[in-house]
Write the structure tokens for this entry.
Amino acid sequence: MFRDHINTADKLTTAPGLFMITLSSIALGAAFGGYLPLISLWLETLGISFQKIGLVSGMAALGIVSSAYFAPHLVARYGNIPVINIGLCLAAVMMVALRFTESMALWLVIRFIGGLGLGLHWVLTEAWLARIAADQGRTRVMAIYATAVGLGFAVGPGIIWLFGFETATPFFLIAILPVIGALPIYALRRHEPKITFTGGGSPLRLIRRAPTVAMACVVAGGVDLALITLMPVIVARTPEAATMLTLSIVPAMAVGNVVLQYPIALLADRYGLRRIGMIIATIGLALCSLIPFFLHSALLALILAFLGAGLVYGLYSIGLAMLAKRFTGGEIIAANAGFVIIFELSNLAGPAIAGILLDINMRLGLPIFMVSVGIFYLLVSWFRRNANPDR
């Protein structure tokens, strides 16, 4: 499936790398897709509150934020490929280490270090793609990348299906995935681009120059991780919920990401990034808000999760494409670092805020969170519609 996409996208790129980065991103997506619900379900067996589960899960965001600041300096000294692959191996070690402590403080430290390792891959491979993607095909290239991550998300939870979540076995198996993801990157050692970083990855600069892009980060980052992290626990704590949803709802979201990214990119190329962004944000967040009310029906809940999460995650691809139109040359690298920082701060804040609201009200907490974030995005995008129609 991906080879067909890659063959189509070859004309849209100017250097090797898309196929191998796609393979690596599938492995990383599987690690994320399996590890996030694994952490939540394991912490649930220890009687940890929603708020603390959200905090532990989101702590990796701070590590990824730090990686966005450190990455340019590390690359300047050691090169892209060594930095990416050392980060992946570090993340793999941290994934296993989490299982062998029950200290809240150590959980937070381990998640931070693991996020730092994964963040190096994230920042540097996206910068790599930004360098090799031709302008006319950037939206579709980024959609292929997002689809690869989504495919991994769909596969990752299968490890929990097969091996459960109470033993250390799934932690070891999921930790192998980042190591596998390092292999395609190593294969590109003769095709490593010379990336020039212009300035630092300031999120304030991105907010000032491209507020709609920044808000796309907030929605995609905050809502996406809140759903992945907290929805399995919501199902586990809802007496009337269909039991199969505990381990099937996150894969349904991931499959939605896989199926919908490229069609969203095609629509955005035809009708405009801003217009399609507003439409998918409205419909996607509305559908996601309905999920807690239909947990008694596995079919309805899975359909809502598939469509809602897939549409919301489309804002990530649209945000990256808008970023490329707003920033050019070496400037795009610093802008992408700011993009990742905002996305990951949203990853940190989203599950924590949603967890607080869920502790207050089990049924309405998540819908209130998603609707509030969505209204903010629509207001920003609407007020900016005349300044930069597609930026």
In short: The mean pLDDT is 83. The chain is about 80% helix and 0% strand. The chain has one domain: 2-383.
